[in-house]
Structure formats: structure tokens, C-alpha cells
Amino acid sequence: MTRTDPPVPWKQAYRSLYYAQAPEPADPKLERGKLGLLVIDVQNAYLRRPDPATLVGPGRATYDAWTPFHERMHRIVLPTIRRLLDQFRGDGHEVLYARIACQTSDGRDRSLSQKLPGWNNLLLPKDEWESQIVADIGPQAHEIVVAKTTDSALTGTNLRLMLTNLGISQLVCCGIFTDQCVSSTVRSLADESFSVIVIEDGCAAASEALHYQELEIINMIYCHVMSSSELLGYLP
After folding, report:
1. Which is more confidently placed, 113 or 25?
2. Tell me: the pLDDT tens digits for 110-120?
3. Backbone phi, then psi, for 85, in 5-degree steps?
4. CA angle 145-42-131, nearest 5°?
5. Per CATH, is 31-232 categorized as 3.50.50.60?
6. Strand 94-100 to strand 144-148: parallel, antiparallel, or no bridges (unpaired)?
7. Which helix (DSSP H) or strand (DSSP E) does residue 147 occupy?
């Protein structure tokens, strides 16, 4: 799927071949006391940028390639997450966060996927500035934050137990990256029989193509995908 103007309503949007002819889903019945917002991996490490004037050659090419991601984050994703936080907090719904943060300074406790060479091999010790959640959308004092060394926020933490203790069975997910930690978390939640909604304008991937491709992959089986405006119409 590619974006359309005007946008397709969520019940028809992001249909892969698997679900091209599937009936429209029913309206979600979100319930007070069972609903939570999960913000995934919006951390300083992913939003910092070098001074482009100091870059040449491949460094400048990499900077330019990532510019659309940063523009989307600041223009769309961060404002959407702030809006969701304000709404959930104001209505008394649970707000939770996940972040990548290893317990050891050398990262030896990280999962294999976070040790392999390449872009995902980031060393983010739990107390360093790079591993902290971006202050503009950061947690309030009483809100739960889980530190993970896996892509899924469920697999390597006690988040599953805490959600059960809180009585939460419905999660609204946003954050980065759509095709990595967001997708991995959503899949894990679905496998554990949580009902999941992913907010399209509250997520981003390295490229727009990867973002929309992943939404099409996970929609209708692991979650339902909708915009923040569409979600707000269903909040209790």
C-alpha cells in the first residue's frame, strides 16, 4: 500500500494480499481499566544528528538518507505521541514505555540481534543519555518504563506480568522503528492474546516505504492500524 489523498479509512487501509478480500473489522470496544498506551523506543540515540557541515562523502550521504526519517519524527510522530499522551493521561488510562537499555556497560547482556554487526548494533547502557526517552514525550514519575535488550518489549522484560497485574488487555502502540521493535512488540503481544492497535502517524521506520510495508504486513493479523484521529473517536 502507498499513501492516498484523501486517506483510506482504517477498515479498508493497509490490506495485504492475505486480507484483500477479508470483511471489515468491527469497531474496537475499548474499555476503561483494560486499556493502555505503550510508547516504544523513542530514545535520544535515534534523534541526535551530527552537524552536516562536518560531513563529507559517505557520511554526508548517510545523513541525507536519514533526513526524511528525522523530518517525519519532528513533524508528525512526536506531535502525535504528545497528543496521545495528553489524551490518555487526561482520561486516566495507563501509559507505559519501553526502551532499549542494557544493564552492563559493555552490553554483554544484550540479545544476539542487538550484537550483530550493522545498524542495530547500538550500545545503550541504561544510565547513559543516549538510552533515555526523549524528554519532550518522556514518562511522568508514576509511569512504568521497561528496559529491554531484545526487540520485543514483551520477550525480555516483565511487561507481560505487569500488564496482567494492571488488568490491561488492550494496547495502543506507537514509537520506532515500525519494522523493527514496534513490529516485534506487536507480534509478541498478539501471540499473548492482547488486542493491539498501532497508530500509523505515531510510528516511523528508516524510510516511508519500510514504514508502510510493515503496516501492511502486521495489519489485520497482529493488530489493527489506524490514525491517531481515528483512535480518539473510540477512546472510552
Report:
1. 25
2. 999 888 888 88
3. -60, -45
4. 70
5. no
6. parallel
7. strand 144-148
Residue 6: cis peptide before it, omega within 30 degrees of 0: yes
- Residue 74, φ and ψ in degrees, nearest 5: -80, -30
The grid coordinates of residue 62 equal 548517510
pLDDT tens for 201-211 read: 999 999 999 99
DSSP 180: I
Averaged pLDDT, 43-60: 94
Q: What does the domain layout of the chain look like in residue ranges?
A: 31-232
Residue corresponding to grid cell 501492511: 216
CA distance 230 to 80: 12
Q: Residue 119 has which C-alpha cell?
A: 545498524
- In tens, the pLDDT along 132-158 reads 999 999 999 999 999 999 999 999 899
Amino acid in position 146: V
pTM over 0.85: yes
Helices (H) and strands (E) in the chain, counts: 7, 6
Beta bridge partners of 43: 133
Using the Cα atoms of residue 25, residue 216, residue 148 and residue 62 in order, give the sign of their dihedral. negative
Is the pLDDT assigned to residue 1 strictly greater than 50?
no
